[in-house]
Amino acid sequence: MDSIIVNPKNGKELKFVAELLEKLGVSNEIFSFNKKEDLEILLDAFEAQQKKYDDEVPEEYYQVLDGRRAEYLKGNSKSSSWEEVKARVIGKIK
Predict the structure, then answer these.
(1) SS3 53
(2) pLDDT digits 0-9 by tens, 32-71
(3) pLDDT of the residue at 1
(4) Quick one: DSSP state of residue 25?
(5) Whose CA is closest to 86, among 76, 94, 78?
């Protein structure tokens, strides 16, 4: 996920930007930093957290997929080709 850092000139400008983002439906968070080093520490922590979660697939996902596969192999669930799925989706859109 990419982020934008905004450095407003004053409290009034900060409030305006925060309200604008809120109205646009953009999640935002206000942080106050005393030093440039504080910001660098936060960014490093954020990047480390993103890398941690970007590479992981929760075990629950594998369990769901294994369960669905088992049901398919038993003949208890129907499978569809991509063409069949596309046709159903196009039918719902019309």
Answers:
(1) helix
(2) 767 777 778 878 877 777 666 656 777 888 899 899 889 8
(3) 61
(4) T
(5) 94
